[in-house]
Amino acid sequence: MYKFCFGIVLCFIVFNCKEATKSVKEVDFYDSQLFKDVQLTAIFKDSKTFVDLVPKKTISILEAKYLVEKEEEGFDLKAFVEENFEDRSMQALEFETDTTKTMYEHISLMWDKLTRGPDSSIANSSRIALPKKYVVPGGRFQEIYYWDSYFTLEGLLADGRDDLAKDMVDNFAFLIDTVGFIPNGTRNYYRTRSQPPFFSLMVDAISRKNEKILKSYLYQLDKEYNFWMDGIYDTDTIGPKNHVVRLGVDKVLNRYWDKGYTPRPEAYKEDLHLASVFESDSLQRILFNNLRSAAASGWDFSSRWYTEKGSFSTTKTADILPVDLNCLLYFMECTISTIYSEDGFTNLGLQFKARAENRKKAISNYFWNEETGFYHDYNFVENENTTELTLAGIFPLYFNVASEEQAKQVKEVIMDKFLKEGGLVTTLEHSGQQWDAPNGWAPLQWIAVKGLLNYGYTNEAKEIMQRWLALNEKVYKNTGKMMEKYNVEDLTLLSGGGEYETQDGFGWTNGVALGFKKILEELSEDNK
Questions:
Q1: DSSP at 440
Q2: pLDDT tens for residues 357-379?
């Protein structure tokens, strides 16, 4: 009798365990009650902190545990998180500045402090492990970010750290091989989007000393290109499909796009708060997608994506064809064409050359604005250019897409409207967003300077470099740090705006500073 009863009990337990296991497998951390309650309670300073913690057990087990314990009297959510999660992130940057060192000497010493990897996999972690060494931006950002890394890499090359630069490229090739594309950053909550596609420029940069390196990354270049062009052959209908927007029979351009329609896990509370202006679930979902798509652009956030002046909730990134993205894809097409042609695949080389030429024509047709003498983004829903002037309009000069006359007009706008005491301001709008005035960012200084040099505007390029570096040096002297971004309008103030405090470290600022120093030295030598 006892054996019979025990058998029934055992069967009951096994059945329930199987059912629990079945339900456990279906638990999505970012859709769990535990995740939502922690983010909305805001027990941490920002939403990113929690998603970077490592659960001590599987999320399904912790979710079940949480749903039981939260009903108990005196339950403490913060204590629950502290008990069941741990900070296994790589050690945040800690250093004491040697004031006897120049800013440039300091940057050279910083590379090793910002270097991480190779990674070992950590169970339940949001981190995507990488096989080789890499340089993180710094501050709270202890994983690599896609477009940041190109400008960091240029600094590594300028500083003679070629091996580390190649390791960076190999890690991105690994991501393309394993994930299918390069995510925004190496966290699993970034798997719904990429960032500005600078991989072809990275490969081009490390091949300067050895052109044979270029074709060794053809497979990954081709695979990334297919990611950005996915959907191009699905339909002949005019309009968007994933990152692709068909404007006519032979007219195809691209947009920044994220496949998610929920709040970003790393900014959950902030996204929900902004979307609360809409009562409709469908309008909230559309806003979530546009916020995610803005994050894919790297310009998160900016009035560049607004459809109503001064209104953050009118962000419509997915409706906009960005001039910078299409210039980057033009270069990718040119690079792939070159490799195929040199490797004996003439027909494929010609196909990609034709795609590049078609895109070059489209960049002039859709982004050039005769009235302003500048390149603007294009809203394909409204069938018109966006009105705002932004530094994205300098990208056609960087990639030699502009005519001599167009370049001259762009130069005049840059020097008249964008140049401030500390360098170039990102936009002319003071919206409170970090990718607007009064902030200047290192990567856009680099794009502008190199673009102007391409068309022979050496004095203008030097002026921008000198003002930017003077500001970098001033802040370094006062703080001992390199910053993520700078206030270029009022040199007595640090930068501001955005979802988080200004970070120090800082990868792409370091890279551009060393790159500018090298360019100025080369220009000085040429004048002797």
A1: E
A2: 999 999 999 999 999 999 999 99
